[in-house]
Design brief:
9 helices; about 190 residues; mainly alpha; disordered C terminus
């Protein structure tokens, strides 16, 4: 069944089929939320916020209109808003995220870790660089690179135009590249992809 057919069934009273929508989107949505929270070190809240997103979607399903957006776009929008709301709540409790951001220390040049360790470190460096991006740039990059959404879908999730999304992605990629330049020039990391 398509998302549209499932939604029609739910609106007609067969609420049990909502579980099928959850099965379809839970992994990707959890990954998206996790990456959104990475910057603030609140990754442990990802599962709770994913569940909250599905709860909000279920309660608001009667307001969903396919003519405005696809179900997945609508769901990602709810997830993004839920995460941003939680981050605002946490900022009022904790030190501002801007003050928490630091510089990634360079690995000692004399250390020669094995390939697997280098690969893991490179992945972590990329994740940390992404986590330092402003919210909209980080969201756009995660939706494009991790969740494989097209520009139009990203524009709908972020409430932006397609050209704004392209600009956000350009700036995000440029920022990540600048952050990673010192590490790419290190011997041992140069030839890794």
């Amino acid at each position: 069944m398509t998302d549209s057919q499932i939604i029609r069934e739910i609106k007609d009273g067969n609420t049990e089929v909502f579980a099928e929508l959850m099965n379809r989107y839970q992994r990707k949505l959890l990954s998206f939320i996790y990456h959104m929270l990475k910057n603030s070190q609140l990754e442990l809240l990802a599962e709770d916020l994913c569940a909250e997103t599905f709860y909000k979607a279920y309660r608001s399903l009667h307001t969903f209109r396919e003519s405005d957006a696809s179900f997945s776009t609508w769901l990602y929008t709810i997830a993004r808003n839920t995460v941003l709301s939680e981050l605002r709540k946490q900022r009022s409790i904790q030190v501002s995220l801007d003050e928490e951001q630091g510089i990634i220390p360079e690995a000692p040049k004399e250390a020669a870790p094995e390939y697997a360790l280098l690969r893991h470190e490179k992945v972590e460096l990329v994740r940390e660089a992404i986590s330092r991006l402003p919210d909209k740039q980080r969201s756009a990059l995660i939706l494009r690179e991790y969740d494989q959404l097209d520009y139009q879908e990203i524009a709908q999730v972020l409430g932006q135009t397609v050209s704004s999304v392209k600009s956000l992605l350009f700036r995000a990629r440029a920022s990540v590249k600048i952050q990673l330049e010192p590490y790419i020039k290190e011997p041992g990391l140069e030839g890794m992809n």
